[in-house]
Amino acid sequence: MQATWNDVPHLTDKAKEQLWDAIPPHQRDARTKGIPVLGAGQIYPLAEELITVEPFAIPAYWPRAYGFDADWNHTAAVWGAWDRDSDTVYLYSAYYAGQQPPAVHASAVNARGPWIVGAMDPSTHGKISPKDGSRLSDEYRSLGLNLIDADNTVEAGLFACYQRMSRGGLKVFKTLHNWLAEYRIYRRDEHGHVVKTMDHLMDATRYLIMTGMASARIEPDEEDEMERQMARHGGNPITGY
Question: Does one domain contain both 31 and 78?
């Protein structure tokens, strides 16, 4: 049996419109027409002008986090800042390099703020440092990176990123050239599988959205100042009132 949305009487035109906007383009035929195939093509088929913005100074009170994807050949990180008023995550910085010792990568990451929490690909636990055979995840933590394991569920992560992009809840600084280069070629093959080529910053973005932003924080000095101001005015630093 094959059924389309038109065969479902309880779906109103407004409900169909809302559902359509939330469905990734490669799944729309399957979900609306009952056609059980995944189309090939760009994973995030949105024009760059819809998601990019000119760089601006990030307010100190916006929480920050980053996504981290590491192996020997390619290491990538993407930093996001969360405007809680509009529920918008701004990708404002990125790092991409390969075939360098972990100390080099860790230094570059810490330069953006060692207090920022990073969501790391959990498969890094199984990757070995070519220097001494130690686990990469342990080595990066010993070098001062504040890392937590990310939810690396692929389809759920892609959907979460796409939903944010399509509603304006994920914006990218135009200066992130490596990120945009990956975005332009991030695609599925003819079988609907993600093409695993030049996708490290895309993976890092997925870790950031799925896990990192839930642990995003502001710089400790700013937190302390907020608490002091609350105390002066008799406010509770936890509830804010």
Answer: no
CA distances from 104 to 46, 97, 107, 143 (A): 34, 9, 5, 10
Q: What does the pLDDT look like over 73-127, one tens digit per residue?
A: 889 999 999 999 999 999 999 999 988 888 999 999 999 999 999 999 888 777 7
Question: What is the helix (H) or strand (E) element at residue 1, kind and residue range?
Answer: none
* pTM for the structure as a whole: 0.75
Length reported for the chain: 241
Instruction: Answer yes or no: is 181 within a domain.
Output: yes
Residues 33, 70 within the same domain: no
- CA 20 vs. chain centroid, Å, equals 23
